[in-house]
UniProtKB/TrEMBL annotation:
Matching Pfam families: Peptidase_M24
Reaction(s) catalysed (UniProt annotation): Release of N-terminal amino acids, preferentially methionine, from peptides and arylamides
Positions of transmembrane segments: none
Cofactor note: Binds 2 divalent metal cations per subunit. Has a high-affinity and a low affinity metal-binding site. The true nature of the physiological cofactor is under debate. The enzyme is active with cobalt, zinc, manganese or divalent iron ions. Most likely, methionine aminopeptidases function as mononuclear Fe(2+)-metalloproteases under physiological conditions, and the catalytically relevant metal-binding site has been assigned to the histidine-containing high-affinity site.
Family per similarity comment: Belongs to the peptidase M24A family. Methionine aminopeptidase type 1 subfamily.
Alphabetically ordered keywords of this record: Aminopeptidase, Hydrolase, Metal-binding, Protease
EC category name: hydrolase
Protein name in the entry: Methionine aminopeptidase
Classification via NCBIfam families: met_pdase_I
Subunit organization: Monomer.
Residue stretches making up the Peptidase M24 domain: 11-248
A biological process from GO: proteolysis
Length: 258
């Protein structure tokens, strides 16, 4: 069931969203060559807890699915060909030329905020830099369609059109989602689709819109050795950006801006 958030709920989501934004701002300042992804995770957890919140991802697993081990960290830190769900580790070291996608969630006052950014470490090939830029633009174009009266897949179509027109692939089996008192709520928000299809958007819907865009021809993210992390099918780099937004009449309200 898709829920419509009251203004009280929106205000609570703003608090959680601002905490996530603060974490990602901090990561942007601190991430550098030679760091481990576990160091980033430790910093993020401390920041979230200092704000009186708890990490949304830590110990998360899909409801009712006992076959999935709870997620063991605060952040998802996915490097290069890793699309999503990269588990922080003291063995994984950030290197010159990497692109590092960081996904973060925080829970406070009964509501979640969820956002992701991709950071460029040092010098990268121009096409990889373009990938990161275009993925961020895909998010912006998707958000622009998140207004009352539009259809859900207007968001999806805007993301897909911009990615493909720039020569990149859309990861189709990883999607955005509704969000609120639960981290993942209805509806699913795919990054591909046809305009004028899907449920009608209503003011007060809360969505986490998150384009995952790749170089090469990968259409799916595939599990790596049965672990949480999912990688591109062909080993090419992938980028990821995400905001939590509230559907409004004229312009979406973004909960996770800096």
């Amino acid at each position: 069931m898709i829920t419509i958030k009251s203004q009280r709920e929106v205000e609570l989501m703003k608090v959680s969203g601002s905490i996530v934004a603060a974490v990602l701002d901090m990561i942007g300042e601190e991430v550098r060559e030679g760091m481990t992804t576990l160091e980033l995770d430790t910093m993020a957890e401390a920041c979230i807890r200092d704000h009186g919140a708890v990490p949304s991802f830590l110990h998360y697993r899909p409801k009712g699915d006992l076959s999935v081990k709870p997620y063991p960290a605060t952040l998802c830190v996915s490097i290069n060909e890793e699309v999503v769900h990269g588990v922080p580790s003291k063995k994984r070291i950030v290197k010159e030329g990497d692109i590092v996608s960081v996904d973060c969630g925080a829970y406070k006052g009964g509501y979640h905020g969820d956002s992701a950014r991709t950071y460029i470490i040092g010098d990268v090939p121009s096409e990889v830099r373009k990938l990161v830029t275009v993925t961020k633009e895909c998010l912006e174009r998707g958000i622009a369609q998140a207004v009352a009266g539009n259809r859900l897949h207007d968001i999806s179509a805007a993301v897909e059109e911009h990615a493909r027109s720039n020569g990149f692939s859309v990861i189709e089996n990883m999607v955005g989602h509704g969000i609120g008192s639960e981290l993942h709520e209805e509806p699913a928000v795919p990054n591909y689709g046809r305009k004028n299809t899907g449920v009608k958007l209503r003011e007060g819907m809360a969505l986490a819109i998150e384009p995952m865009i790749a170089m090469g021809r990968s259409r799916n993210a595939v599990s790596k050795n049965g672990e949480w992390v999912a990688v591109t099918e062909d080993g090419n780099p992938s980028a990821h950006f995400e905001h939590t937004i509230i559907v409004r009449k004229d312009r979406a309200e973004i909960m996770t801006l800096s």
